[in-house]
Amino acid sequence: MKSYLVFLMLFFPSVAFCATWSVKPSDMSRQPGLSEVVNIEKASISAKILAAYKASPAAGETYTDSGCTYVQEIVGTCTIVAHMTLADGSISDRSIRIGIVPGASVACPATVELKGKTAPIIHSGEKAYVSWSVSQVTPENLCHNSCIYYASSATASTCYRTSAGASDGFCNFVVAVNSSAGSCTVSSGYAAASAGAELNPDTTPDPGGGGGGDDGGTDPNPGGGTGGGSTGGPTVVSGTVGVEFKSPGTLSSQLGHYLDEDGSVETATTQLPKDLSNQYQESDIGKKVDETVHSFSELANVPHQCPTGQFELFDRTIILDAHCVLFAQIEPVLKLATYAAWMLVAVIIIFSA
Predict the structure, then answer these.
(1) What is the pLDDT of residues 259-314, one digit of tens each?
(2) Is the peptide bond before 139 cis (omega within 30 degrees of 0)?
């Protein structure tokens, strides 16, 4: 036997540690329930085997667990002692040895995206946020599909409402595998990542716009007739009902005055601002300002979630997200304080007028 052990130690020197064990297939037919003892953690497999015998005991027998032995993490044996009380009152014991082997290996992805717990939605300005952070991911060794992941490595992904218009939502998050922890059997309760209703849907109304014909669409009151050639009356834009554009006219010889289309004189106080506005919109600086405003508008429509930070320390990822939980708690107070501040500013402006 000793030479056999030495042979195993020399022949299998680099066998990796196996986190789970299973009953040998040849032993499963000896006792009902043994076939269910598959991929069990080392600390639990002996108790699982004992439970299988206690669930279907032989007549007059009781059982105790004598533990398991392992050989180079390759094969092992678990022993159950069966006790029977004889007619003379004495106890007869017999040992039942069950062979065990390492459980099936599990291929674990480097990262996995999971769905966070449902949490209330808070509002800041016109944006909505889910009152949840990656610090709420527990336990530290998170079990999913028989693989173990670091909860401390969790990083937030996309957040959703549970349904359209709902007051609660959830965030998906990504975690990294703990390759040194082997496999696991009891899930931590996190489902795979999924999508829900949009957290901040675009509520901008559709500008629409008609597909009117050459005569100006379906304007119920077209005014001075349709068709071209007329120089009188307002110009109606095709496809848009009731929108008028008037030429600012030309500069007269009188400084500070404009001639309207009908020849009447308009003062600079009415026509000059309109003309300057048109010139500004067509200028290079006006176009640049419009582009900048448009860029900020697009930035404001980007989906939001509570901003977090992280850094590496002693081979651990430290997540800075405590402010998310704090903001969720004090958000109602901040909202009231902000309303009060703006009301005070409004009162000061009104009384200083």
Answers:
(1) 555 555 555 555 666 666 777 777 777 777 777 777 766 655 555 567 777 767 77
(2) yes
